[in-house]
Amino acid sequence: MATDQKYPLAPSNIMPRSDAEFATNNFQSNNQRRKKKLRSTFLLTIFLTGIILLFCFTFLRIKSPKIRIENIRITNDGDGRINFSAQVFLRNRNFWRYGYDSTLGTINTAEGTTIGRFVIPDGEVRRRSTKTIYVMENFILPSRLNNTSGILPVISEAKIRGKVKVFRVFRWKKNVDLSCTMSINLTISAIQDLDCQ
Q1: Where do transmembrane segments lie in this chain (predicted)?
Q2: Residues 157, 141: Cα–Cα separation, whole Å
Q3: Mind spelling out the 3-state secondary structure of 107-132?
Q4: CA distance 93 to 191
Q5: What's the rounded Cα separation, in Å, for the pair 78 and 88?
Q6: CA–CA separation, 189 vs 127, rounded Å?
Q7: What is the pTM of this model?
């Protein structure tokens, strides 16, 4: 008599995973990967934002140039003829070039009378550097001032108009004013008490 031997379909101690369990585990794994990706994207965004802000505050912070006048020399022939020469220092504090237009400077008395003029020619200052501009002018003192013995207080003024050139595409207008008070010693042909603001 033949007996049919039946084998169990699976060992009794191993439980097969159902489709629901597999879907749940797969969803959790995808969810964790999505969270990691979002976290990485967020950190990358924060990092790039910091780099952009640092770039903006460092390189795109546009400042006005500084200007001063020094090494002034005058000669007085005693007949009211004054030869005036000086060095104008224009300092560009930006990381971009600064171009400026030609400017006419004046030398005025304390009362406001213009006794001399000098020209600052147009030019360009490289980034983070100082340009030296030599100016020279001859002028004649009015007779009432020529008779003044001793000290003649004067004010030297000029207004430079220019633009900071960013990537040579964008331009920011930046003007700078030269205003220096000084005293011309007519007796010894010298400058005293020079003060630039």
Answers
A1: 42-62
A2: 18
A3: EEECCCCEEEEEEECCEEECCCEEEE
A4: 29
A5: 27
A6: 37
A7: 0.68
